[in-house]
Amino acid sequence: MTFTSIHEGDFKKLFDEKYMQLYHFAFDYLKNEDECRDIVSEVFTTIWRRREHLDKKNINSYLYLCVRNKCIDRLRQQKRFHKMEKEYPLLFTDIDDEEWKLKEERIALMQTELRKMSDRTHEVLRERYLNDRSYKEIAALMGITVDGVSKILTRAFSHLRKTCNAKNREK
Description:
Layout: H1 8-30, H2 33-49, H3 59-87, H4 97-116, H5 119-130, H6 135-142, H7 146-170
Helix pairs in contact: 1-2, 1-3, 2-3, 4-7, 6-7
């Protein structure tokens, strides 16, 4: 028998029987009541829409699998958000026009200085900060030592700090 044969009343019974169980299952992952309610509701909405394509015998497994997958997706989103918030705090703060102008000038200065750096330094910076590779991965990729990667990054940031600080003192 397929899920198609379940009428609205049967679906409501399934919802009433499983909602709290799925909510607690989601809460084990997320620890957030609102998010758990949202996810369980989304799953039941999906079940209702796909009722013609689901097998009634496997509906319990399907419910738990959907809730688990949505929780994992939500955790991944949160992790990316927190990482972004940590790496780019300026995106999450209020800044007035004067501060923006100063930040833009500093970014322009840094871009100018970055263009002056060697291709090797560019590659190390790109792999570390754009591709999120470890020092060890960069070293293996570029055929240099981990210490070499560290020295390249140290020199690059030292140069950027010195240039930006000197420019700030001029103002």
